[in-house]
Amino acid sequence: MRLLKKWIISFIVLFAALAGSLFYSKIYYPDLPIESITKREAAAKGEKSVRKVTKLAEENNTVWYVAQMEQGKGYDLMKEKMAESGWSFIEQNGAGFFFEKGGETLIVNSQMWTGKYVLFSLPNERGR
């Protein structure tokens, strides 16, 4: 009977450690389209993105941002960020947001990463 209790306690401790590790690493989150940042790092930056768009990384001539979605507010936050850089919002077509500045057009692409966070990507040489 004592041996059975030890096995049960060991199993519970092992299970709790494994569950804690999975929760901490955010392994259950969808894959990121970015290789230079982990899911845990992206989620931490996303958690700080309340009422603002937060830069995640620059990779392959693309700048990546994250925002909390909060019933579509993430899209409005990106529009505000682009307006601060002098870009005027033209229209949204699917996941693409079209902006204009000085006769140039810039497309910011969006994609839901989790139910809570939206990712934005835009060409590195413009828009920031």
Structure overview:
- The chain has 2 domains: 1-30; 41-123, no CATH class.
- Helices cover 35% and strands 32% of the residues.
- It is built from 3 helices and 6 strands, in the order ααββαββββ.
- Strands 1-2-6-5-4-3 form a 6-stranded antiparallel sheet.
- Describe the strand arrangement of the main beta sheet, using strand numbers: 1-2-6-5-4-3
- Low-confidence stretches are none
Average of pLDDT: 83
Overall structural domain count: 2
Could you state the order of secondary-structure elements as H and E?
HHEEHEEEE
Structural class, by secondary structure, is: alpha+beta
> How many β-strand stretches?
6
What gyration radius follows from the Cα positions, in whole Å? 20 Å
Kindly summarize this structure in a few lines.
Helices cover 35% and strands 32% of the residues.
Keywords:
single chain, alpha+beta, 2 domains, 3 helices, 6 strands
List the SSEs and their pairings.
Elements: H1 2-25, H2 39-47, E1 54-59, E2 62-68, H3 73-84, E3 88-93, E4 96-101, E5 104-112, E6 117-123
Antiparallel strand pairs: 1-2, 2-6, 3-4, 4-5, 5-6
